[in-house]
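Budget justification aside, the reviewers requested a transparent look at the raw inputs and outputs of the sequence design task funded under Objective 1. We therefore reproduce one unedited record. The lines immediately below are the structure tokens for a 171-residue chain.
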């Protein structure tokens, strides 16, 4: 009988089953690829988001160190220069948990599909499949929490620089 893969199983299993069983269900093969897409697609996207947020934070921090607030005659121009790209860090921080949740939902659906195709299944296999699905939510939170913290730190730094500009230009 054909069986689907649990999250984390490799395609070598699929190709071995295809060679050993001529009646291997095409649907099971598609689900195996879907499992890899869930694992690598969602986690890969979260990894890219994490790198993007970190690079923006570093770039903004370096910009804050070299910007000379007193050279700006208009506060709005200074604020524009200081806040470039900061909204992306907030966007990443607010959307990463949802992308992780999407990976978890897809992983749970994949686990239920596996349970349905195999009929009676061992409880430990179900728990392994569900725990593997939850890794996407954990990864989403690992991206979101630092992003929101860095966003708040950058925003506080912007407010501090703008306040210094106001004090210097009131004289």
């Amino acid at each position: 009988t054909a069986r689907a893969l649990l999250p984390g199983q490799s395609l070598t299993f699929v190709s071995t089953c295809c060679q050993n069983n001529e009646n291997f269900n095409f649907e099971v093969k598609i689900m195996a690829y879907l499992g890899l897409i869930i694992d690598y697609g969602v986690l890969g996207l979260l990894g890219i988001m994490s790198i993007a947020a970190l690079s923006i934070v570093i770039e903004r921090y370096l910009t804050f160190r070299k910007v000379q607030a007193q050279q700006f005659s208009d506060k709005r121009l200074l604020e524009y220069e200081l806040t470039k790209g900061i909204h992306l860090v907030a966007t990443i921080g607010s959307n990463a948990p949802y992308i992780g949740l999407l990976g978890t939902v897809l992983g749970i659906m994949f686990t239920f599909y596996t349970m349905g195709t195999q009929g009676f299944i061992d409880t430990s296999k179900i728990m392994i499949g569900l725990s593997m699905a939850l890794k996407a939510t954990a990864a989403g939170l690992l991206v979101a929490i630092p992003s929101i913290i860095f966003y708040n730190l950058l925003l506080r730094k912007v407010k501090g620089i703008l306040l210094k500009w106001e004090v210097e230009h009131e004289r």
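The radius of gyration is 24 Å. DSSP finds five helices and no strands in the chain. Computational costs for records of this kind are itemized in the attached budget.
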